[in-house]
Design brief:
The chain has 411 residues and is mainly alpha-helical. The protein is built from 17 helices and two strands. The protein starts with 5 loop residues before the first strand and ends with a helix.
Length: 411
C-alpha cells in the first residue's frame, strides 16, 4: 500500500491522521492542565480566608496533589499497558473531576485538601504520553510530544492571565473548582469522540516484571533522572523568579506576565522551528544536550541578575526555550527506548520522577532561599544543570542506541 499522505512534509513529518490525533489529544491534555493551573493564582490567598486556613494546611493543600501523582503514575501506567490507554485516562479524568467537585462544594480548608488529593489520584500523565506514542510513528513522535508540550504551556499561560479575573466572576476559589470539573468532563468527551482508537494492548504478565525491565535499562534511568532534575530546577526557578521580579526589578505580581509571556512565546516559536527537524533518535539526544546547556546558561544569567531587565529577560527566555524543548524531547526518547509492551510503565516511571523532582526542588529551594537568597537558589539550579549535562554527555552514545527489546516489543 502507498505510504499515507504526509502533511507539510518539510514542517511536520506527520501524516494527517497523526496530526489530527495529536491535536485531539492536546485538547484533552490542555483542558485538564488549564483546570489544574487555574486555581494556582488564588489558591493560597482564598484558603487563608477560610475556616482553619493555617499556613501549614495551606501548604498541604498546595502539595497534596503531587503525592497522588508520585505514588500512582507507575501503577496507572502499568494498568494502561494491560487494559488500554483510554480506559485508564478516563478513570484518571473522572477522579480529577470528582476531586474538583468536592473542592467546589467545600466550606473549609479540609474539603479543599480532600478534593486536591483526589485530583492528584488521577495520575494519567504517563498514560497520556504513552497514548501519544501509540498514535504516532517514530518519525513524528517528537512533533506530537511538542504539540502536547505546547498545549500545557498554553494552558499555563492562559491560567496565569485569567485565573484572578475568572475567580472574581465565578465567586472565588469554589467557582474555579466548579469550572475545572466542567472542563475535565469535556476532556473525557473529547477523548472518546475525537482521539482515534488504538490497537488492543498486547501484554503478557505485565506487572512488577514490566517495572524491572525499565529499571534494568540504564538509558531509561538516565532519562528518569533527567525528568527529576528538570522538574527540581523548575521548582527552584519558581521559588526564586517571582522574588527576583518583585524585589530586584520592582515588578508587582500583576505585572510579572510582562516577563513570562514574551519568554513563553519565544519558546513556542523556537519549538515550531526546531522540533520538526529533530526526527532521528540521535538528533533528539543532541537536542536534549544542547537544551540542557542553554538551561544552564539561562540560570547563570538569572543568578547574576541584580536590577537590570535585559539579563533577566535573556535568562528567562533561555530557560523557557530550553525547558520547552526538553519537555518535548525527553518523553519522546523514553517512548523510543522502552519496549512497546512496557511503554506505559516506562512513561509512568518518568512522570513519577518528575514529581519527585518537584518535591525535592521545593524542599531544597525553601531552605536555600532562607540561607543564600534568590541568587543562591538560581546558583544551585545552574549547578544541577551543569552536572546533568555532564551525565548526558557521558551517556550520549548509549542513548543513541536502539534497544533490541524495543523492536521486539513492537513486532
Amino acid at each position: 500500500a502507498a505510504e499515507p499522505r504526509r502533511v507539510s512534509a518539510v514542517v511536520f513529518h506527520m501524516t494527517k491522521q497523526e496530526l489530527r490525533s495529536a491535536l485531539a489529544l492536546a485538547l484533552v491534555v490542555g483542558l485538564r492542565m488549564f483546570g489544574l493551573f487555574l486555581v494556582l493564582p488564588v489558591l493560597a490567598l482564598d484558603l487563608s480566608r477560610m475556616p482553619g486556613g493555617t499556613p501549614l494546611l495551606i501548604g498541604v493543600a498546595l502539595g497534596v496533589y503531587g503525592v497522588g501523582h508520585l505514588l500512582l503514575q507507575v501503577p496507572l501506567g502499568l494498568l494502561s499497558d494491560r487494559i488500554g490507554r483510554k480506559p485508564v485516562i478516563t478513570m484518571g479524568l473522572a477522579l480529577f473531576a470528582a476531586g474538583s467537585l468536592i473542592a467546589a462544594l467545600a466550606h473549609g480548608v479540609w474539603g479543599i485538601v480532600l478534593g486536591r488529593a483526589l485530583q492528584g489520584a488521577g495520575a494519567v500523565t504517563g498514560a497520556s504520553q504513552a497514548l501519544a506514542a501509540d498514535l504516532t510513528s517514530e518519525r513524528g513522535r517528537n512533533a506530537v510530544m511538542g504539540i502536547l508540550g505546547a498545549a500545557v504551556g498554553l494552558a499555563f499561560l492562559l491560567a496565569l492571565l485569567l485565573g484572578s479575573t475568572l475567580a472574581a466572576h465565578l465567586g472565588g476559589l469554589q467557582g474555579l473548582f466548579g469550572l475545572t470539573c466542567a472542563l475535565v468532563l469535556l476532556a473525557i468527551a473529547a477523548l472518546w469522540l475525537l482521539v482515534p482508537r488504538t490497537p488492543a494492548p498486547r501484554v503478557h504478565g505485565a506487572g512488577i516484571g514490566a517495572i524491572m525491565v525499565t529499571l534494568r535499562d540504564a538509558r531509561l534511568l538516565v532519562l528518569d533522572l533527567s525528568a527529576l532534575v528538570l522538574h527540581a530546577v523548575l521548582t527552584l526557578f519558581f521559588v526564586a523568579m517571582p522574588l527576583l521580579l518583585a524585589h530586584g526589578l520592582r515588578l508587582p505580581v500583576a505585572g510579572q506576565w510582562r516577563v513570562y509571556v514574551p519568554a513563553l512565546l519565544a519558546a513556542a516559536l523556537v519549538m515550531a522551528l526546531v522540533l520538526p527537524r529533530v526526527r532521528a533518535q540521535s538528533a533528539s539526544v543532541v537536542a536534549v544536550q544542547a537544551s540542557v546547556l542553554l538551561l544552564a546558561l539561562g540560570l547563570v544569567l538569572l543568578a547574576l541578575t541584580r536590577h537590570a531587565l535585559a539579563p533577566c529577560m535573556a535568562g528567562a527566555v533561555s530557560y523557557f526555550v530550553a525547558f520547552s524543548m526538553l519537555e518535548a524531547n525527553l518523553p519522546g526518547l523514553v517512548s523510543r527506548l522502552a519496549p512497546t509492551t512496557q511503554r506505559g510503565a516506562a512513561l509512568g516511571a518518568y512522570s513519577a520522577a518528575q514529581f519527585m523532582g518537584v518535591i525535592a526542588g521545593g524542599a531544597s529551594g525553601g531552605v536555600l532561599l532562607g540561607h543564600a537568597g534568590v541568587r543562591g537558589v538560581f546558583a544551585l539550579a545552574a549547578l544541577l544543570a551543569v552536572l546533568w549535562l555532564l551525565l548526558l554527555l557521558a551517556a550520549g552514545t548509549r542513548l543513541r542506541q536502539t534497544a533490541p527489546t524495543a523492536s521486539a516489543g513492537s513486532a
